[in-house]
Amino acid sequence: MTKCDVLVVGAGILGLSAAYHIKNKNPKLNVLVVDKLGAAGQGSTAKSAAAFRCLFYSRTNFALADSSVEFYKYAQNDLGYDLKLRWAGYLWLFDDNGYKKMLPVLKDLANKGFEYKEYDGSDLAKKLDMQTDFTGDEEAQMMGLGNVYKGILIPKAGFIDVDSLVKFYESEFLKLGGKIQYNTEVTELIVEPRQPLGMPGEPYFWQDAIVTGAKTNKGLIRAEKTIVAAGAWSPLLLDQLGIDCFIKAKKRQVFSVKANTEALRKLLFTNEFTNAGCLPFTIFPKPSAYIRPNPEEGAFWLAYADEFPRAFKIEDNPEPEENYYQYGLYQVTVKYFPQFSGCQPFSAFAGLYEINTIDGQPLVFEENGVMVVGGASGSGIMKADAIGRIVAALYSGEEYALLYDDRKFKVSDLGLKHRNVELEKLVI
Amino acid sequence: MTKCDVLVVGAGILGLSAAYHIKNKNPKLNVLVVDKLGAAGQGSTAKSAAAFRCLFYSRTNFALADSSVEFYKYAQNDLGYDLKLRWAGYLWLFDDNGYKKMLPVLKDLANKGFEYKEYDGSDLAKKLDMQTDFTGDEEAQMMGLGNVYKGILIPKAGFIDVDSLVKFYESEFLKLGGKIQYNTEVTELIVEPRQPLGMPGEPYFWQDAIVTGAKTNKGLIRAEKTIVAAGAWSPLLLDQLGIDCFIKAKKRQVFSVKANTEALRKLLFTNEFTNAGCLPFTIFPKPSAYIRPNPEEGAFWLAYADEFPRAFKIEDNPEPEENYYQYGLYQVTVKYFPQFSGCQPFSAFAGLYEINTIDGQPLVFEENGVMVVGGASGSGIMKADAIGRIVAALYSGEEYALLYDDRKFKVSDLGLKHRNVELEKLVI
C-alpha cells in the first residue's frame, strides 16, 4: 500500500499543473500523480489542436487564458523551456449575419482596450487567394456555407507545443520532489467512514464518509486528499460515488494535410497578418470548421468541433473517421480555399473533449473529500496554468487564487455551489 | 415501418401523462407510446413510494404538485377512477438545529396561508410511543441520530395508488384513440438531414439535421415528433446524439415490514393526526429515513434516499440490499420506534430515481427536434399531471401551459435555456 498526502488521478495537462502548483505551494507535502498511460499527457492532452487565444469576452475565460499564456511566455523566456510559442494570431471569418451579431461584442472589447484588427472579405480574398462569396455556387448554398464578409484578427493568440508544455510541468514537479507513477490505472475511489467501527459493509448511510484514496491495478493508494483530473474519464470514477461532475466526452478529430503545392505553401507561410511566419489559426464563418497551420510539419491541420448528433462517448482510442474528412472537412475547406483541391490527409488523430455541459467552462470543486478538476471543454491547454493555481488554492482552503501576474481569482467561481462564470460571447 | 405524428418513448407515469395531454389537446393526431416492458408503468413508476404532498416552498414545486394532486382528486371524485387517495399527511420530524433552519421557511409559508400543524417532541413521544431524546444513548450518538425536537404535520399530503393512476392515464389515452405498443424497445433515435441528398453517411456536419423517429426491436418508427420519456434510461438514447438531459440514475430501496404486533398495529392505524385512519408519512430528523405506512397491506414501508457514496448507475433490475435494511433502516427505525424491535422485512423492492442533477426539478425541453421530459428526481408521481400538460403545451408551441385549476405555468421555466425554477427549501 502506498501512502501520500495528495493523490492526483491523471497526468494530463490539468493534473500536472494542479500537482505542480500544490507541490510548489506546499514543498513538504508528499504529492503523487498516477496515470493509466505510460507517460505524461498521452490522453486527450496529446490530441489537442494546441492553439490559444487571449481574447475572450467573459472575464472568467480571459483571466484563465491570458494569465496562463503569460506564464507560458515566462516559462519560455525566463525559465528556458522552449514551448515553441508562435504568435500567429486567430483569424476569425464572419458572414454578414455573424458579423452583425459579433459587432456589439467587438465594440465592447475595443472599448476595454483589447486589440484586434478587422479585414474586409474582398481584402482577404486577395491576401489569401480564397473564395469569399458563394453567390451562384449551388453546391456551397446547399451546404449552407457562409460568405466571408469580414475577418477579425486576434493578434494575442497562436500555437504552443503541447508536448513541451507537458514536459515543463512534469519536470518542474519532479524537481520539487513530486512523484509520478505511470501505467497505474485507478479503478475506483475508496470511501471510508470518518469514524470507522470496524464492521463489515461500512460505510452505512448514517455514517459520515469521505474519499480516502484509490484502488489501482498496482495496489491501494491511501491519500489525505484525492484529486480527480482524469479528463473525459473522470465521470467513470465519480459516478461510482454518485458525484456529478457534469463532464461528458465528445470525440474531436484533426486531419493533417501537407502543403505540397506552391499555392498551399504560399498560404501556409503567409506574412500578411503577423510576423510569426505563417497563416493564423483560421475559422470559417459557417460551419465554423478551422485550419490550424502547422508550419514545423509544413502542414495544415483541418478540424471541426461538431455538435448534434455527435455522441457523448468515452472511448480509450477514438479513431478519426475517413468520411469526416472526405464529406465534411474537405468539402468545406476546398470551397473557401480552392488551393486544397484534391488534397488527402497524410495523417489524422482523434481525442476527446471533456465538455462541461453546464457552461463549457472549467470546474474546480470539492465534494465529500474528493477534489475534481476538469471540464475545460477543449481549452484546457490554454487555461491549464491558471486552473492548476486555482486547484492549489482550493486545496489550501483559500478564497482567492493568485494567478500569474498577480491577478486574483475567486476559487468558488469555478465550483458548483457558488459557481459564477460569465457567459462567453466569443465562441468558435 | 410504423408512422405516427408523435412518438412517446416510455410508458411510465410521465410518458403516459404527456401522451394523454397531447392527444387530448390534439384529438386528430396519431400519438403512439412505446415501452420496452410488457405493461404501463412497470419501470421506476411501479417502484415509487407513492406519497405526495402539496406543501413546497418553491413556486415551481408547489404549482406542479398541487395542481396534479387536485387533478387526481377530480379523477377520483368526478371521473370515477378509484386512485385510492389517502390524506394521511406528512409528519416531518426535526431536531433543534433542523427546526431552527426550517423556522423562517415555515413562517413564510404560514404567512402565505399554507396549513400545517406543529407538535412538540414530548407530545409525539406520547402519541406515538416513540423515542425522541437520545441523551445517554451512546449507540444513537455514534449513529449521529437527531433528537425529535418538533414535528410538523402537513395535512394536504398522503398516498396514492400508483397502479391505478397509471391505468387511469393509459385507459383515458386509449379511449381518445391513442396507441400503445408494449415490449417495444427503442435502441436508438433516428437522425436525418432536413434536406436529404440521398448520399451515404448523411447527415454530414454541415447539414441541418433533426430526429425523425426511432429504431426499435420491432422495427422502425417514423414520427413527426419524438418525445423521450424513458426515465433513468433517457440518457442512454440522448447521449448517442450528444444531447445532455442532466439525468442520472440512483437506486432507491423500499423494505416492507408487517405490523404484526399490537404495538405496531397501534402505530400504523393511529388516528392522532388525521382522519385517514393511519400514521402519516413520517420522516426522521437525521438521517431523514422515512416510514411510508401501507395500511391496505397492514405494513410499513421503510426507506431512505441515500446520497454519497450511492452510485449513479442505470440498471434494469435494481435489487434491494439486505445490509441496507439490517445495518441501515432497521437500526435507525428501531431507535426512534422501539416497536420495530426484531422486525424483518417480508418483502422489498428497488427502483431508480431519475435525478436531475442541476436542481432536482423536472425538465421539459426540445433540442434538434426531439423533446425530452424527465428528471423529476423522485417526485414524478405527484407532479405527473402538470408535467404532462407542460409537455403538451411545448408540443403545441405555447408559451404557457394551463394546469388543472387554470393555473398558468411558463413552459420555458422547466427548459434548459431559460430555466427558471425556484430553489426548494423544504427538502426531505
Element-level helix/strand string of chain A: EHEEHEHEHHEEHEEEEHEHEEEHEEEHEE
- Morphology call of chain A: elongated
Straight-line N-to-C gap of chain A: 46 Å
Radius of gyration of chain A: 23 Å
Residues in helices of chain A, as a percent range: 25-40%
CATH class of the largest domain in chain A, anyone?
A: Alpha Beta
Number of domains of chain A: 2
Stretches with pLDDT under 50, minimum 5 residues of chain A: none
What can be said about the biggest beta sheet of chain A?
8 strands, mixed
Assigned CATH architecture of the largest domain in chain A: 3-Layer(bba) Sandwich
Oligomer: homodimer
CATH evolutionary superfamily of the largest domain in chain A? FAD/NAD(P)-binding domain
Describe the structure.
Two copies of one chain form a homodimer. With 428 residues, chain A is α+β, with helices and mostly antiparallel strands. Chain A folds into two domains: 2-78 and 162-246 and 358-414, 3-Layer(bba) Sandwich (FAD/NAD(P)-binding domain); 90-154 and 249-354, D-Amino Acid Oxidase, subunit A, domain 2 (D-Amino Acid Oxidase, Chain A, domain 2, 2-Layer Sandwich), CATH 3.30.9. Chain A is built from ten helices and 20 strands. In chain A, the strands form four sheets. In chain A, strands 1, 2, 8, 9, 10, 11, 17 and 18 form an eight-stranded mixed β-sheet that branches. In chain A, α1 runs parallel beside α6 (162-175), α1 runs parallel beside α10 and α2 crosses α10. The model of chain A has no long low-confidence stretch (mean pLDDT 97).
